From TrEMBL:
Pfam families: Gp77. This is Uncharacterized protein. InterPro entries: Gp77-like. It comes from Candidimonas nitroreducens.
């Protein structure tokens, strides 16, 4: 599921948050592990958008993103595993535009 779509400039270094509390609180569950993988959807050879860090609490994640090539689109695929054994896969989409 695509959670959000963002526009960023190539030189920006920004953090993007994902809040899992609406999903996890009703089940009394918390995050155990989170992984992130970036692919360029417009040029398979482009690896210039980087997720340099993933910060996690029991209910939220912060993804630090930098780089990207002007005009390209990228998908950050997030896999979140919970203490209760649940697995969620979702995406953030980035369009890079140099203004």
């Amino acid at each position: 599921m695509i959670l959000a779509t963002y526009i960023k400039q190539p030189s920006e270094i920004k953090d993007y948050d994902v809040d899992y509390s609406p999903w996890l609180l009703p089940m009394d569950d918390t995050l155990d592990d989170v992984t992130a993988d970036v692919v360029c959807t417009t040029d398979a050879t482009d690896t210039s958008l980087v997720c340099s860090s993933v910060e996690r609490t029991t209910l939220r994640c912060k993804f630090w993103m930098s780089g990207g090539t002007n005009g390209n689109k990228y998908k950050l695929t997030i896999q979140a595993t919970t203490v209760g054994g649940r697995l969620d896969e979702s995406e953030l989409v980035f369009s890079v535009k140099d203004y």
